[in-house]
Every structure is written in C-alpha cells, then in structure tokens.
Write a structure and sequence with these properties.
Layout: H1 5-13, H2 18-22, E1 32-35, E2 39-45, E3 48-55, H3 57-68, E4 81-84, E5 86-88, H4 97-101, E6 105-107, E7 113-118, E8 130-136, E9 151-156, H5 165-174, E10 175-181, H6 183-186, E11 187-189, E12 195-197, E13 214-218, H7 222-225, H8 227-230, E14 235-239, E15 245-249, E16 252-256, H9 269-282, H10 287-302, H11 312-323
Parallel strand pairs: 1-4, 1-9, 2-7, 5-6, 9-10, 10-13, 13-14
Antiparallel strand pairs: 2-3, 7-8, 11-12, 14-15, 15-16
Helix pairs in contact: 3-9, 9-10, 10-11
Bound molecules: adenosine-5'-triphosphate and 1,2,3,4,5,6-hexahydroxy-cyclohexane.
EC number: 2.7.1.64
Protein name: Inositol 3-kinase
Organism: Panicum virgatum
C-alpha cells in the first residue's frame, strides 16, 4: 500500500508523540489509560424502543483493545489498560464484560443515558443516521480521578462532555501519547438534551491540540474540528462510515479503504475504529495500516447491535492485518 510509508515518515519527521507509539513494536505490553464514561443506550425506531444496550465509547474501546492489543502470552485474559469511567447506582451493565473487567467509579448522580432515534429513511454514507439525545448525565471525570502514574498511551473518549479540559491536560501529562475522539471535545446539548456541536477552536481544548498525537472525528464532526487548522497541530483522522477513513497531517493526507459490512446498528463504530487504530499503533504498524485495523473493527461494530462479540475467525483477519 503506497500510502503506508508517506504518513509515517511525515509523522516521524514531526518528531512528536506519534513516534512513541510507533516505536513499541515487539516490545513488552504497554499500559494504557482510557478515560470516558460507560452509559446506557436506548435505541428507538419509528417511536418504539427496539433495543437497550451498554454504551459509552469506553465500553466499545475496551472491547476492541482486549481483542486486539499486543500482550504477553500468559496475559490472554485482559490487555493492560485502565478505564476511568463514572456511572450511577442505576448502572445496568456492571456484569457485562467491559465494566466487569474494569469497573467504573460510582457516583450519586445517575448513569449517563442516551436515546438514539434512528431515521427510517436510508441514510447516505455521510449523513447522520440517528438523532442523539442525552437524557441523563453522570458527573464529569476530574483530574484527581486519574491514577497517579505514567502510561504508554491514553484514549480520551468522552460521550457527554465528561472529559474536562483539565482532565485531558492531566492525561497528556501522564501519557506518552494521547489519542482523542473529537466527540469528547465538541459535543454540546440543547435544553432538550439533543446533541449538537461547537467549534473546537472556541473550546478550551483547542490549545491542547499540539500535545495530542491523533484526533479522530466523524465526517459529521469534521467541520467543527476545522481539519485544515487541526492537521497543523496533530494528525487528524476523519471516519467516513462505509467509505472508510482519511488521515490528514501537516503536508499530506491518505485515504484508507473500508471493509464491507452489513450495518445493523451504527453505534460504537467510531469508538471501535479508534481502539482498532490504537491497537494497530501498539503493534508497531504505520498509521495508515493501523487505520486499516480501525476500519476492520468499525465494520465489525456496525454488524452487531451494541458492544460486539468477536468470533475467533474475525480475529484471524485482525491477525492477518497486523502480521502481513
Ligand atoms: N456501513 C459500514 N460499512 C463498513 N464499515 C463501516 C460502516 N460504518 C462504519 N464503518 C467503519 O467504522 C468507522 C467509523 O464509522 P463512522 O464514520 O460512522 O463513525 P461515527 O459516526 O463516529 O460512529 P458512531 O458515532 O456511531 O460511533 C468507519 O471509518 C469505517 O471504518
Ligand atoms: O454508546 C454510544 C457510543 O459511545 C457513541 O460513540 C456515542 O456517540 C454515543 O453518545 C453513545 O451513546
């Protein structure tokens, strides 16, 4: 793939944080820090509830990191990363695999909850296919909630504004490289809880971008991120649903082809993509090949309702991407 060499050289030339991830190939398992809350997702179609599932980017991310991260033979059960997430006493999925392995912090406020209203009309690849409304919000995650030690990498994956600017700043101080989902930075909520977006440049997060390694945005979020400005500060990845994704860095860009999928639920595609991408970097892949692994897990996520289960055969494809 001719795209592979170019971005990596460009990223290495920058001499910034991306290198730290890229340099881990063959090394020992590296501990990560995932920050963002688990939530309740209620899926609604035609005015009827058609599903209630565990949500929150942290749940989808944990699921993929556990399936795809490099780790020692004897540690097959759980990949080495910590999740800092907050839920209320009403949390319904404490025994689901991701929260059971990495339990959330309990708060007096209720668990963050989203209603996802799916349109009946066939969505185009880039059009929003659901309207999201936050109906409950748990407490934010404060800097003091993060463990006081160093991590190889961090993933800032908030869903409802819970990753405060000062929390992201602390992540940046604790982690050698931080990957950020734009949804953690630019989401706002109207009086009804409907998700809308603000311009990243107008948020306190903007000044942190030069210290972020990768910023991932969906094509719906990309206009609020301001790709042309952001790519001068960090590598920006724009996910394009069934069209795969594009990487933008200072001086270049690359498109990475998708995997085919029959979409049954788009929830968690972006989260699974980002985790697959991070796992690819941990395996030592160039950014564009890591994005291929991201596309693989994004496609896997849309093929199932809720947090997906990975069958051994699917993980053989993942192995093939990583090792070929
Ligand atoms: N229908 C699809 N077919 C194949 N791959 C898909 C499909 N939808 C999504 N993907 C994969 O998942 C990635 C992320 O999808 P998308 O761009 O829709 O993210 P998103 O809007 O952030 O998703 P969500 O908010 O639902 O988590 C894409 O870049 C692609 O690799
Ligand atoms: O569980 C989902 C998922 O984490 C999505 O990435 C996010 O956009 C939604 O708000 C959340 O409900």
């Amino acid at each position: 793939m001719p795209l592979a060499a170019e971005p990596v050289e460009a990223l290495e030339e920058g001499g910034n944080q991306q290198q730290l991830l890229l340099a881990t190939k063959g090394g020992p398992a590296l501990e990560g820090l995932v920050v963002g809350s688990y939530c309740h997702d209620v899926l609604i179609r035609g005015g009827r509830v058609v599903g209630e599932t565990l949500g929150g980017a942290a749940a989808f991310v944990s699921n993929v990191l556990d399936a795809a991260s490099p780790r020692e033979e004897e540690e097959q059960e759980a990949a080495p990363f910590v999740v800092v997430s907050k839920v209320g006493r009403d949390f319904a999925y404490a025994s689901a695999p991701a929260p059971a392995r990495r339990p959330p912090l309990l708060c007096a406020s209720p668990t963050t909850s989203f209603h996802a209203q799916f349109s009946e009309a066939a969505a185009s690849a880039h059009a929003p296919d659901r309207e999201l409304r936050r109906v409950r919000a748990c407490d934010p995650i404060y800097p003091a909630d993060l463990p006081d030690r160093r991590f190889a990498y961090g993933l800032a994956v908030g869903v409802a504004g819970e990753v405060l600017p000062e929390t992201l700043e602390r992540m940046i101080r604790l982690c050698r490289a931080v990957l950020v989902d734009a949804q953690a930075l630019i989401r706002a909520f109207d009086a009804d809880g409907a998700v809308c977006h603000v311009s990243l440049e107008d948020t306190p997060y903007a000044r942190l971008l030069p210290r972020v390694a990768f910023l991932k945005a969906s094509s719906e979020e990309a206009p609020y991120v301001g790709v042309e400005t952001a790519r001068r500060r960090c590598c920006v990845i724009v996910t394009e649903g069934r069209d795969g994704c594009r990487l933008f860095w200072d001086g270049g860009e690359a498109r990475v082809a998708p995997f085919p999928a029959v979409q049954v639920d788009p929830t968690g595609a972006g989260d699974s993509f980002l985790a697959g991408f991070a796992a690819g970097l941990l395996w030592g892949l160039p950014a564009t090949d890591a994005a291929l692994l991201g596309n693989f897990f994004g496609a896997a996520a849309v093929s199932q309702v809720g947090v997906p289960t990975f069958h051994p055969k699917m993980l053989q494809t993942c192995d093939y991407i990583v090792k070929s």
